[in-house]
Queue: 4 jobs
Job 1
Amino acid sequence: MERMIIFCMLFFCSSMALTAAPYRIVKYKQLLKTIRQLEPTVKDKDVELLHTPENPVDECLFTAVTCFQRGILKLQPANSQVNSTFTQTTKVLKSFTFSNPGKQCESSCESYEKKKPKEFLKSFAKLIKKLLKD
């Protein structure tokens, strides 16, 4: 009986460890899909340029994600026909959370180059792909 309890505890603990990583992968893949859905609905002409983190070092990932979330607030729909899709996808991207690893980053959002909204979204997708690989 004692062996059975120990086996059950080991099985439970190992299954919990294995489910954490796939959830993160699914979450990031959903974010990539959302970014791709948003790209064609974003206004790209006569708009404010956005601070766009590119290739942030590991200790600056939290700052980069924060910059992208701030930039999402400034995006505009391309036209009124795509407004509902635009609103739904931006809501998903605004609610994305990324845990802070606790390391300090020297750069701020303002230190990154400003780019057009579609380039901004491509860089955001690139960052999410990097998080998927980690």
Job 2
Amino acid sequence: MTTKILSKTDTSKALSLPTKFFKDSLPSFNGGHAVTFQAMDESGFVWTFKCSTRKEGHPKPVLSKGWLAFARSKKLKVGDKIKFSVLDPTAAVPFYGVRAEKEVKIFGAIFGYSPIIIAPSNIP
């Protein structure tokens, strides 16, 4: 499982991902510059995401298609956390998991993170 704490750009434009995500928790580009994959959230809803990289220079993977709909449905904010994982690494076609967690603060201090679970019927 790979995690990232969200920035302003992540919550308003696209999710910038560290390249290590693709070694641990997301599909390989197999020499290309874009990959589309599906990931299931905590409620069982399956999201389709597209991740792409720059063709030249530092690859800088970015999750674009599907990301803003996911972020809005979960009401993600700066400081919240996103986690990606491989649900069944032995499957012929890997299936991924995505989990959003809200920052929990007590008296202004970060106490931890709580999962965001929204049923598919509440997703626009």
Job 3
Amino acid sequence: MKSVFETNFFGVIRMIKEVMPDMKKRKGGHIIVVSSVMGLQGVVFNDVYAASKFAMEGFCECLAVQLLKFNVT
């Protein structure tokens, strides 16, 4: 579980944290996150993978609203 979340969730967060300050300073930018349909609908026997993708979807949805004032989409 830890390794799946480390890659699929925390890895994405680390990357966003690296690029975010520059995007805020420039007042613009795009963040493109490649996810999975399992971030929207779970599939039997893929519970941990789906949970990591659900977490990423939720995080990015919340972040998108916060970054509107910086013109980052």
Job 4
Amino acid sequence: MSTSAMRNQTLSSSRNLTKKTVPSTRSSSSTAKKSSESGWEYWTRVYSDDTQSSHDIRISDILCSNTLTRAKLLFLNVPNHRSIHKTAIMNLVKKEMIQDDISIQDVIFTPPGKWFLNFYRPEDALKVLKYFNGFSFRGHILAVRFCYPDGTFGDENSLAELVKCSNNVKGKRFEQKEIVQNTILPECWSVSEYEELKKFETELMKILKSHSHLPFQNVIQSMRTLFSFNIQSSTSSILISDALSQWPIGFIRIFNQNVKVISNVMCLSTSPFYTQRIHDSALEGRFSIHRNSWEPFIPNEIRSDAQLIQYFYSFLCHFGPQNIDIDIPIRILTQSLRGTWPKSTSILAFKLINISSSFVIINRVLYLSNDRIHHEKVIYNIATYQDDCSDDYSLELSCDSDDKKVMIDDFDNL
């Protein structure tokens, strides 16, 4: 056989082989495409976003999407070391909890000393919180907190409630569930006041349920009218009227876990509007928090003694001396603090004078020891309290130093 004939035979065989394999390739492509389409159909249901085509999104993007986050944990007091990165944190959790099937959606490392862990399932977050709260890691005792979308903290019971709701209503997102947290601390209020506050919260949420969001001032005005003591009704309340008049934004913060104030609007924590604002704020890198001009920061952000002193100084400059048993603003402030701060106004006030000489308690009233206006009120307080006595008393108040601590509770001992 000539060389030319051999080449023609080889070329013919090659063409026949190609023709035979083409149908097989098309079949595989068709199967893969069908499988891919069914996969996208599943993830589209999970993502529940009709505004985007499945061809415009990658599965890796969907897995990292905040819409899949059902619970978030904040790790505090973590070691700040360069060797600690996202993969190392995920490996730590999986290694320590190897018996549990823990699915972590994402890890955000925020130096110094903070980790944010997002979870697909609230029950996974609850397991991790129970295990790692108090866990010793590289010489650091970790503190783990359940974190709400606005950055405030919830306790283990709040997360357990979320797990319970998640199990009862499978397939629905966290922001679509109607989870009502018990936000009122009974230590700050009498029994009758506690009932009035619960009634206020019920009426407030009833107004907000029918709207995605409402202007803050409009809601406040409606609640003032509803609970006005000047108009006798079943909802009339001196406590609510005074609280809304003296410090409306502080009063609304009591119900922070169920009601959110963003910029100048108010909405429920389960509102899609709130979820969207959180998402937009994350993209913009900032979050608009509604606070008074005199506030250095909101009470939710107080984490240290120094911050507590700074906030209380501004607080007393604005509201003036506070009776720790009666005055509403200081009780609202105590109620608004998160974490391990004392839940009793009296205990919190005495803690304050123990950590700073800038404050003094006289006849159950908290004053600034280095403020001239407060000095005058102290003198009036003493004069009124000792009105029937002829003895003279002197009280040294520091104006510019922290060398002396002053506390007078019982004038019978002077």
